[in-house]
Each structure stands twice: as C-alpha cells, then as structure tokens.
Amino acid sequence: MAQETTTSPFAPLSGKVFQFRCHKDIPCFTKCCAQLNLMLTPYDILRMKNRLSLSSIDFLEKYTETKQNGRSRFPTVYLRMREDAYGTCPFVRAEGCWIYEDRPGACRIYPVGRAASKDGGGKGTREKFFLVLEDHCLGFKEKKSWHLDEWLSNEGIDTYNAMNDPWMEIVTSRKSLGPQREIPRKLQMFSMASYNLDAFRRFLFHSRFFDLFDVDPDQQERLAEDDVDLMFFAFDWLKFSLFGDKTMRLKS
Q1: pLDDT for 6-39, tens place per residue?
Q2: Domain layout of the chain by residue ranges
Q3: CB 3.0–4.6 Å: which of 18, 147, 152, 214 could bond 249 by disulfide?
Q4: Helices and strands (DSSP H and E) totals, the chain
C-alpha cells in the first residue's frame, strides 16, 4: 500500500518495508533535484571530484558554497545549485543525473532518511530510519516494495555510512576546541582536512609533519597515492588537532 503524505514530510518507517520506485518515465522525474540544501561530506567530495577529474580546490570553487550551519560549530560545504529559474542541481540533465554512480550519500538514500548517533558507550552507532514524504514525489505510488536492508544495499549506503560516520562524529562532538584565540586556526584546519584533500596532502608532504609525527613509511606511501587512506588519516589528525585526542603519536 502506498504511503500517504502527512503535514510533516517525515514519517516512521514501520516494519522496515516501504513502497517506492523512481524512473525516467514518472512525471516528477528529477523534480527532487532542485532547490536543495544539500550538505556534502568529505567522501561525497572525494567521489565527485575524482569522477570529474578535478582537483579538490577546483571542485570546491566551481560546485560548492560554504555556510555556517547553525547546528554546527564548523564550516559546512553545500552543493551550489544552478542560478536558473528552478535552482536545479548542476549534475542533472533531462535524462537524469550524469554522475549517478558517484552521487552524494544524501541523494543515494532518498527517500529514506537516517539519523545516527554514538551509543552511550561510544563504541557503536545507533541508527534511526524514516521516510521523507514530499508532496511532489510520485514514486511512493509505484508498485515496487523494498525492505530497508535491501534498499541500503542496493544504493551503496553501507559504504557511504562507513566513510562518513567517523567525520560526523567529529562534527557533532561537543568537546572543547580550547582557548578562543586558537579557534580560527582550528576551523581553517578543519576546512582543509575535511574538504580539500589535495591541500591536506601538500600540508603533510611539504612541511615538517613526518619529522614530528611517527608515521611509518608504508603508510606515508599510501597517503601519497590513496585518497581514502588520506581521508581517514585526516579524520585522525582532526581529532588530534581539534580536541587533543591521542590519535597521533609524536616522535620521541
């Protein structure tokens, strides 16, 4: 049975089963890809900039804008919509998304929403899923049923969550950033290490970083070549540099 839209666009995902199908012949096709307030994660940016064969800085300058999100202490990067009458996503064409295989995590999971938080012991992640029932979306009237686990697997969400959750733990942390005088510098470091991996790589390899920190040669080699390894190293660096967590080891 199709779900009915309520006054709130968010509805419980009862039984972990829902009905939905999106395809190019549905009248609302791509209408959900306009006027988005779409926050990008480091892994979103990594996938898209590599898909487009752009440097981090070129991707950021061409396709994003940075805002101060009132819910976060940290600068937040959003996908910039086209400056047209509809405010459409820059990657949408009449036939659909032309970077579909590398689309952001928020696009992948739609029309499902996910809220995640660390459990009380700090060792696991608690998840809550819900449906986003927007008035324009006719996909809920299509006769295709999904179990939540099937949907997450089909859309590659588990991979994106594994990549994004360590960063979300940083963003949502309430740990102190230290003295007020240090915060502007720390926020600059956050922006670079989160969003501009090319600049972060230069920071590592064109400074005295490896003279000061104990990073074995094999890992240094991976950091020079592998963007995913570099991204996770950046997360460890942010925990160390922002909060003083013992995720880095100084040379004795």
Answers
A1: 456 888 887 899 999 999 999 999 888 998 999 9
A2: 10-164, 180-243
A3: 214
A4: 10, 9
